[in-house]
Amino acid sequence: MWGRIAEYFDLPAADYPASLSPLEEQMADDQAIWAQIVAEHDLKEPDISRLVSAWHTDADLGRPIEVVTDMSKSRAMGFTAYQASGQAFFEVFDRLREMRLIP
C-alpha cells in the first residue's frame, strides 16, 4: 500500500524504519518548505498546521505494537459498507488536488 501511495505522488517509497521516527518531530520545521510548495503549485492553504495533524498521525500509526482489528461485530450491527483502503486514499487525494490543497 505505501509503495502505491508513494507512486501516486511520484515519490520513492521510504524503507521501513528500524526505530520509531515520530512525524511530529520530522515536520517540526516544515512550514517554510510548505510555503515554497504552496507558491510553486499555486495552492490555497499556506498554513501547514491547518492541513495536517502530525501528533494525531503519530498516535494512529506510531504504535510500537501491531494492532489487529475485527469488523465482524460492526457488520453484524448493520455496518456493511466496505471500501478498499487504497481506493479510499486515492479518492481523498484526488479531491484534495481538485480543491488545490495538495500538489
Number of beta strands:
0
User: How large a portion of the residues is in β-strands, by DSSP E?
Assistant: under 5%
- In total, the number of domains comes to 1
| Class derived from helix and strand content | mainly alpha
User: Please, how many helices?
Assistant: 6
So what's the overall shape?
Answer: globular
Task: Give a quick account of the main beta sheet: strands, pairing sense, barrel closure.
Answer: none
Which spans have pLDDT < 50 for at least 5 consecutive residues?
Answer: none
Distance between the ends: 20 Å
- Give the helix proportion (percent range): 40-55%
Helix/strand order, N-terminal first = HHHHHH
Average pLDDT for all residues: 90
Structural features, described:
The chain has 103 residues and is mostly helical. The protein has one domain (21-98). 48% of the residues lie in helices and 0% in strands. The longest helix has 14 residues, at 85-98. The radius of gyration is 17 Å and the shape is globular. The protein starts with a helix and ends in a 5-residue tail after the last helix. The model has no long low-confidence stretch (mean pLDDT 90).
Task: Give a topology summary.
Blueprint: H1 2-8, H2 23-26, H3 31-41, H4 54-61, H5 72-76, H6 85-98
Characteristic terms for this protein:
mainly alpha, single chain, 103 residues
